[in-house]
Amino acid sequence: MSPRPLRHRIASYLLGGFVCIQIVYLPLANIFQRVPRRMPPLPDEVLVRLQREGQATSSEPVQSTIDAIGSATDRWGELTAQSQGWSLFAPRFGTAGTFLTLQVTASDGTTTELRSRFEPVDPDDYIRFDLAHYRLFYREMSFALIYWTWDADSFATRGEEWRDVICEYATTFRRSLSTYVRWRLAEEYSGPPVRDVRVVVRVLLPPKPDGTSTRPEPVAVPMAKWVPERPDRLAAFDPVTGRFSD
């Protein structure tokens, strides 16, 4: 029996090494996610992390070891695209459909609305099969999900809480969302010079559960404002005052 080619042997060693690492990584990463460790500030584009933060012990050598092991599992998960962020959408699950929309106001005062390509004409009777624009769908969904738990009296009853949430979104996603606005303008807008763009979410509330009512008309809920003079910044909407922050 002739020996296997060198490339086959190298491939088998690499595969075996990967499997051995995975046997250690998978339980270790899940266990250490629940062990408090010291974490750097959240980077842009990340709202929350599932890792418990803090210190598990007052012993510096032990805590340093925990931090190092946790960081190692994080880096391996990122390298191999295994990082997970599941929380089963707890503790609240949204019931509204949300679609990102841009309301463009020109220098002459005219307004143009650029709706999402994914918003159905009839939300009660549609099917979406579009494999070519999944990344765009996911990006818009990430922005628009801010209002999936919103209802008609949300701002009146919990205005300050919503103000904090909106400000956090506008700050965390300021780079990607402002880039998205500029891209949509370049691709779809051909009117007079832009004065400002209001980033709003069209919220499609569900019919009442009694089954006797129809779905309400979509509600355009503001999230942020973009102006050409500050292309990389967003002014968050304040539901308490009804204005955009400076």
Number of helices: 5
Structural class: alpha+beta
What general form does the structure show? globular
Number of domains: 2
Task: Offer a quick outline of the entry.
The chain is an alpha+beta fold and 246 residues long. Helix content is 37%, strand content 16%. It is built from five helices and six strands, in the order ααββαααββββ.
Give structural notes:
A hairpin with an 8-residue loop joins strand 4 and strand 5 (235-238). This protein is α+β, with helices and mostly antiparallel strands and 246 residues long. The chain has helices at 6-32, 60-79, 134-144, 154-172, 174-188, and strands at 97-106, 111-114, 194-204, 219-226, 235-238, 243-244. Helix 1 packs across helix 2 (60-79). It folds into two domains: 6-79, no CATH class; 97-244, no CATH class. The longest helix is centred in the first third of the chain and has 27 residues, at 6-32. A six-stranded antiparallel beta sheet has the order 2-1-3-4-5-6.
